[in-house]
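Exercise 7. Predict the joint structure of the components listed below.
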Amino acid sequence: MKSVSELLAANGSHENWIPLLDMAAREVFDLMLSCELTVPSILDDTTLDVTSMVGLAGQLCGVLSVRCSGKAAALMATKMLGVDLDKVGAEFSDALGEVCNMVAGNFKNKIAGLAEGCMLSPPTVITGSNYDLHLMADSPAIEVRLLFEGLPILISLQLHG
Amino acid sequence: MPIRALIVDDSSVMRKIVERSLRQAGIDLSDVFQAGNGAEALGVLKDSKVDLILCDINMPVMDGLEFIKQLPSVENAKNVPVVMITTEGSESHVVQALSCGARGYIRKPFTPEQVKEHVVPVLAGKS
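Solution:
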């Protein structure tokens, strides 16, 4: 079996990881929010103004992020907490942070050798969309676009080197 | 018989999910205490007795592994079973947690059925 570093060196685009990222996200939403993510038929231009990020360090270095609208984040909190939408306050960011953390953990556990060799940072959540993100990365991000309760979410993994 | 549980996780949302999962799993809870990290949990245990602890690993201030290492020094917490609930799924994390004294290990994401599968034997003293 190839090591993670050999796999990384041999596969510059990491496009074969897209199905794993997709599956990792679907499992988290299925098990923890009891809902099925679907594939959007068209690219939605809804502003994704809540971003949760988890850093990966070790054999795989980079940032995994989950972006969605504030409404989608609040809806995630209602599903996770079992409360109505009007009862959700600041918990929406905690909920999205946990979703991102679980997607990152579930993703790395699907790649042989990575569960041992890759650590996750605590999640960071940013609200607002008027910012530029500058990463010291030399490989493109892999992205998965899905719909949660009809609302778009964007999951991306930006790798470093 | 109803049990008293302590849930330790830096996410308040996750603490609520764990509590709900325990109830959905049919665990009869009389009291549920919560803490945001290991140090807070040790503080809770100085004043309160519990029958079960569910604990995350990656937390600020004091992580879950350090917390279970320090548990024997707390009079109220001696012999209280600890089940880890974490996104860290590596074999070494499981071995490390079990060698530190954890009695069970649940990986996030999880279902109430998985919580039941791991917690019931621990409460019955079979783990």
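Discussion. Chain B has five helices and five strands.
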